[in-house]
Amino acid sequence: YYQLFGTNPFFYHLHSLLVHLLSTVLVYFIIETLIGNWKLEIGNYNSAPFIGALLFGLHPIHTESITYIAASMEMTGVVFMLASFWLYLMHTTRKIASYSLALFAFFTYEMTLTLPLLLVLYEVTVGRLGLRGIIRKTWGYWVGVGGFLLIRFSLGVGLARGDYLAFSPYHTWLTMTKMIVKYLWLLVWPVTLSHNHTVVPGFEAFMTPYSDQSAILRQSILDPEILASITVITVIIVITIIQRKKHPILSFAIGWFFVSLLLVLYIFPQGTAIAEKYLYTASIGFVILLSWVFYNLYKSYNRYKHYIFLIVGVVALSYGARTAVRNADWQSPISLWEHETVVHPASELAYYNLGVYYAELGYREKAIAAYKKALELKPQFWQAKNNLQNLQKL
Distance (Å, rounded) from C-alpha 188 to C-alpha 282? Predict the structure, then answer.
C-alpha cells in the first residue's frame, strides 16, 4: 500500500471502509445461507439476515478494527475468511475457491487460523456430519493451516508473541476468564470503549515495565470475580452443548464466539491481554444470535411484530450513534489518548503517550503537564522523566 499510495490517508481509509462493507455483505450472505428458511418479513422481504448484517455493520466495537488503519489491514484477512466460509456453505464444487481464499486469509491475519475449527463447529451443530464426513470435507483447510505454520516455524517465528501476564501461565489463564466475560459485555453494552483496557487495577492491556505484576499474581481461583466469570462461561458452554440438537443455530452462534477468540486467550502468550479489534470476527456469532432471538420473538409474538422491528431500529440507531462518537476518539492520536485519560485516569501510559503527541505538535505546556501526571502515577517512569526534563530545558 505504501508503494502505491505513500502517506495519503484517503486510500487507507477507503481500504478500511471497503473491508468493513465487504465483511458486512458476507455476514448477510452467511446468515442468509445458515437460516434461509427464517422469515422475518416486512412485506415480502425476509429481513432476518438483514438484521444481523445491519447490527454487525453498525456495532461500535468494530471502530478500532476499521478506523485504526493498522488493524484494518489485518481485517482484510477476515474478508477472505468469511468468503471462504460462505463458499464452503454454498456448494462442494466451489472447494478450490474456498481453499484459495482460506490460504489468503491465513497469510494475511493469524486469527483466521480458526477457520477449520469454525467449519467443524458448523458441521457438529447445523450440518451434523459424522466424524469421517467432517474429516473428508475439511481436511484441505487443515492442510492450509499446517502449511502456514510450517513456513512460520521455518522462518524462526514461534506461536508466542510475548510473555504470560506476570510471567505466570496459571494466573494468566485465571485472568483470561474475566477477559472473556468482558468481551461478552463489550458486545452487549458497547459504552465504555478503550484502546487500552484495564485488566486488573494497576495492570493494563499493554504490559509495560511499570505494570503491577503483583496485581496479577494476587489473584486466586477463589476470588469472587474469577469464580463468577468461570460460572458464567461454564453455564454458557453447558447451554451450547445441551441445545445443540434442539437449537443448532444458538449453539453455532455461541460456539463461533468462543472459537474465534481461541488464539488470543493466551493459550500461547500474546502481546496484548485484551483488545477490541479481537472481537471483529467473534462478533459475528453475536449478531447471528441476535438474529435468532429476534426471529423467535417474531414467531412467538407476531401480533407485536411492529414493536419488534422498532426495537431493532432503536438498537441499530444506538449502535450507529455510539460508533460515530467513538470514531471521533480515533480522529487523531491526541483525541485518542485524551479519551484514554478520561476513561483510565490512573493510566500512566495514557498520560505519557499524550505527552509525546503534545510535544510533537509543539504544545509544550500541555506536554509538560501530561508527563508530570504520568510521573505522579509512576515516579519510576524514567522515559516520562527524561522527556519532561528535555522539555523544561527548552
Answer: 13
| End-to-end alpha carbon distance in the chain | 38
Whole-angstrom CA distances from 218 to 130, 212, 233 are 45, 10, 22
Closest CA relative to residue 373, chosen from 357, 381, 215, 336: 381
Query: Among 259, 7, 247, which Cα is nearest to 116's?
Result: 259
Which run of H or E residues covers position 204?
Answer: strand 203-204
Q: What is the CA radius of gyration of the chain?
A: 23
Instruction: Specify the pTM.
Output: 0.94
Q: What is the DSSP string of 305-371?
A: HHHHHHHHHHHHHHHHHHHHHHHHHTTSHHHHHHHHHHH-TT-HHHHHHHHHHHHHTT-HHHHHHHH
Cell 481485517 -> residue: 75
Beta-carbon contacts of 144 under 8 Å, excluding residues fewer than 6 positions away, are: 99, 102, 103, 106, 116
Contact 101, 107 (CB under 8 A): no
192 touches 363 (CB < 8 A): no
**Residues 18, 112: Cα–Cα separation, whole Å:** 19
Task: Give the Cα separation of 27 and 52 in Å (integer).
Answer: 7
Can you tell me the distance from the alpha carbon of 95 to that of 101, in angstroms, rounded to the nearest whole number? 10
User: What pLDDT, in 10s, does the model give residues 339-360?
Assistant: 999 999 999 999 999 999 999 9
Average pLDDT (40-66) is: 83
